[in-house]
From TrEMBL:
Lineage: Bacteria, Pseudomonadati, Pseudomonadota, Gammaproteobacteria, Cellvibrionales
Record domain Cytochrome c: where: 57-157
Gene3D superfamilies: Cytochrome c-like domain
Protein's name according to its UniProt entry: Cytochrome c domain-containing protein
Keywords: Electron transport, Heme, Iron, Metal-binding, Signal, Transport
Coiled coil regions in record: none
Single GO term (MF): metal ion binding
Signal peptide: 1-23
Length: 160
């Protein structure tokens, strides 16, 4: 993915904040599906890179695209999701590992983590990545739209 970079001063202030927020958010404690535990390192460097390189325009476009996700997914900590699993702290988390969410076997049995590349493939075509998924979304085929959505999510992960 290629993104036009923001001014250096903005990136410099965003990166430390993103690292601390992601570290705090990535643990979903106690999952029987093997979510990242307290002593397990979760690599979110790819999400950090996206947040660092995202343009304001791509984040705004991604925010508009994210509206189609909100019918099923919440993004705020503790906010219930209407149909799908909550997305708070999902970066780097093991797929299908959010405690108390009834995943299909396709996701519950996954050993993948939500990296940028895995998420990109998944939102391009959920059924190709996880045949049998219960996600009622056929995919976001346009690569630039996926990049914008990922940029928005990366930027959201950096918010306090």
């Amino acid at each position: 993915m290629m993104f036009i970079t923001r001014p250096q001063s903005y990136r410099a202030s965003l990166l430390p904040l993103l690292v601390s927020v992601l570290a705090a958010c990535s643990y979903e404690g106690g999952s029987s599906h093997g979510a990242a535990g307290v002593n397990e390192s979760v690599d979110v460097s790819d999400w950090e890179e996206i947040a660092e390189k995202a343009t304001a325009a791509s984040v705004v476009k991604g925010e508009a695209l994210f509206q189609m996700c909100t019918g099923c997914h919440s993004f705020e900590e503790g906010e219930p999701s209407p149909a799908g699993p909550g997305l708070f702290g999902f970066a780097g988390r093991r797929v299908g590992s959010l405690e108390a969410y009834p995943y299909t076997q396709a996701l519950a049995n996954s050993t993948e983590r939500w990296t940028v590349s895995h998420f990109d493939a998944f939102i391009a075509s959920p059924y190709d990545v996880y045949p049998g998924t219960g996600m009622a979304f056929s995919g976001l085929k346009n690569e630039l739209d996926r990049q914008a959505l990922i940029a928005f999510i990366g930027a959201r992960l950096s918010e306090p």
